[in-house]
Amino acid sequence: MFPGLGKGMSPRKMQQMMKQMGISVTEIENVEEVIIRTADSEIVFDDAAVSIMDAAGTKTYQLMGTPHERARELAIPDEDVQLVIEQTGASADAAREALGDAGGDLADAIMRLSV
């Protein structure tokens, strides 16, 4: 891709070339944890090393470490619990459980408690 970038190039020479091209790389110190959240899960890096490459004002983050995946907990807003209680007359615990079983879907939770 770049002439001279191959085996035997010293890190110092590489840094000089990057500096000439206007590229800088810095490490983020003391990173404790990095979490990538998706709709269904979280990918967690407890031993992460993160660096930032800045090229012409565009920053790119590089993450290295050992990931482990965990399921995301469903956050159920208190307003949703209250609405299910009002519509069904169920207890707060029953409303919260129905919302959890319904994946947070209000209509489904109400239907589950109305049957």
Query: How many distinct helices?
Result: 4
Fraction in beta strands: 25-35%
Architecture (CATH level 2) name of the largest domain: Single Sheet
The portion of residues assigned to helices is 25-40%
Summarize the helix and strand pattern as letters: HEEEEEEHHH
CATH superfamily of the largest domain: Nascent polypeptide-associated complex domain
Structural class: alpha+beta
- In total, how many beta strands? 6
Question: Could you give a short description of this structure?
Answer:
The protein is an alpha+beta fold.
Describe this entry's structure for a reader.
35% of the residues lie in helices and 30% in strands. It has 115 residues and is of the alpha+beta class. It folds into two domains: 61 residues, Ubiquitin Ligase Nedd4, Chain: W (Single Sheet), CATH 2.20.70; 37 residues, Helicase, Ruva Protein, domain 3 (Orthogonal Bundle), CATH 1.10.8. It starts with 10 loop residues before the first helix and ends with a helix.
